[in-house]
Amino acid sequence: MPLPAASPAASPSAPAARPLLMDCDTGIDDALALLYLCLTPGTDLRAVTTVAGNTGAERSALNTLQVLETVGRTDIPVAAGAETALTGAVHDEVSTVHGEGGLGGVALPPPTAAPDPRSAVELIVETARAAGGTLDILATAPLTNLALALRAEPRLPELVHHVTVMGGAVHHPGNISPVAEANIGHDPEAAAAVLAADWDLTLVPLDVTMRENLTEEQRQRLLASDSPAGRLAGEILDCYFTFHETTCLPFRGCACHDPLAAAIAVGEVVPRLAPRLPVTVDTADGAARGALVADTRGIHRGYPELPGAGATVVLETDGTFGELLVERLTRSGQETAR
Fold it and tell me: Which residues form the Inosine/uridine-preferring nucleoside hydrolase domain (predicted)?
């Protein structure tokens, strides 16, 4: 299947947006990120690949197609990828977090578009080659697909402009163990390979995503909007809010994990603090398995760049992204960003 043509520039004088591929495990926050990207002017979402995480890879592909159809983007190829971690491990689906099926238990019509016949790895590699070194990748899921793509095409870092990963916890507690965040912890070997690859990479950890929140008042605005994207977001967030309220937040609301990473990936949110740090992942079979290990020993000296620094790690944003996201999803009558 041929790749879709590049999206036109926002105006004759504006530079063309770099093509973007999103690798995800479409649960609720991935869905919000997809909607945000499709409704953000100047964004060229070229392809989506899915992996087992919040739900299985094939189910995630179906969820992705349904979300994209809500905003009329049936032109974007969606390919399913790895159903297990590199070690063959299978983790349980998190219906208590994302609801039955991954979208808060909300029933959506079957999509008119079908999953792309290519594998996720094939779509990643072919999209990177076609973009000629300009492709940005946004990963909001376990990093198995990207690790497998690196195996299939060792030159992939040369073909990719930038990688943004929602994952890890630096000073913040983990969310699947005291130290491990889900996207890193569900496949530590894959995460270690991706972080070690020779490409420009930004990490968006729990340290910032847990501080960018949506509230019940904002969810009600989403539900009351004239925008199909806004109404869908409001419906699927009900389940997500319940999980957050009963486990990790002192109010009814949620963290903006994947949408924040998407906004950083396309440059709409500029971090306040994002030092470049050496990073790795604990892959040993112990209590710290899956922990992101970031060298923050320069914290009291303004984080001077250390030899061998491997990633830009976002540690502080301004805390206002939730309102921007609601505004973007509720703007009635807006056209998708193509």
Answer: 21-299
